Structures are given as C-alpha cells and as structure tokens.
C-alpha cells in the first residue's frame, strides 16, 4: 500500500492502480503521452518500423534528415498514436510488479506520469538492446514525463514522480536490479543520476539514447 498522495501547488500524486479514471481520462493520458515524445530532446515524430530509428517532425517534413537509415522513407510510420497508446497504458497497469503514479491537478487534469514494472532479464535485454545476465527479475523503469507547459515548469514535478517510483521500488524489490532507457540531453537523465542510476556503455540507433542501471533497487533513493 502506497503512502497518501503528496500535494504540491494544487497538484497531487496518485497511485495509478487505485486511481479511478473518469470517462475520457485514459484517452487524455494517451494524448499527453503522444504529445510529449515528439518534443525536444526526443523528437520521436515518425519511426522506421524496420530498425526503430526515430525522426523529428522537421526531418520528416523537409524530406532531408541527417544520416537517415537504410529504410528511409518507405518504412516510416507515426511514432505515437493515442488509439494505440491507450491499450498499452491499460496493459502496463496490469503488469507484474507494476509501480505507477499520475500527477493530477484540478485545473488541467493529468499533467504527468511515471511507471515501471518487472521483466525478465531476457525481456529487458531485448527491449533496450543491451545484454544483461541477471538471474532475478528486473524492475524496468518504463516511463517518466511532465506536460511541457508554463504552469508545469520549475515546480519539481519530475523530481516528485521519480521519487515516488524509486521509493516504492526500493521498498518492494530491494534485491532486484533496475534498468531504464532515456535521453542524455533530457531533464529526466539528471534526475535518474541523482536517484542512483548509472549510465552504461551503449550504442543506440537513436542519437543520445542511453541505458542506465541500478544494480539493486536498494541503492535507489528519493531526490
């Protein structure tokens, strides 16, 4: 059982498994998800469905990306579509070992989210394209985002979301490692470093994409 919601400037953190989604809110969350990743520093607007390389909106519209993959442009598809993300979110909530929180405020609804869940070492290795030899399950820290809007900036919302998830992971899975994937130009990268994750040597098809590891959740801490 998680601690009671924490209030900050009219926004509260709520446990995703206990939250009662009102009509349209799951779709609102999916739309927020899709709005965030095309922005800096991710630029995940279009995606190659063969190699997984992402392209920004500017690259796609210009038709002249820097260092395109071998499948450009025939294999491109929209990177994120709300109608596809919504069932992904619903499925994630039911994953084994799920830990997730939403940042909700009366004025703007859901403005942030963060979650992770348990995966096998083989599943994580395949997902992040980095080999892990762990014999135990792995807590995969899957998502972290805050709406890119003036009323969300400088409020410490990202720190709150990370602290919630790592605190729960430390309590529930102290002996399991934790893995995540992020962008080293993002604010999230700095938050994860502060929480106890370390960057691993890794090469990704997407520039600045990095893999991070905490060799046990007991080493994670709130920030």
Automatic annotation (TrEMBL):
It holds the Pfam family Acetyltransf_1. InterPro entries: Acyl_CoA_acyltransferase, GNAT_dom. GO terms for molecular function: acyltransferase activity, transferring groups other than amino-acyl groups. Residues 104-195 form the N-acetyltransferase domain. It comes from the Bacteria. This is N-acetyltransferase domain-containing protein. It comes from Candidatus Woesebacteria bacterium RIFOXYB1_FULL_38_16.
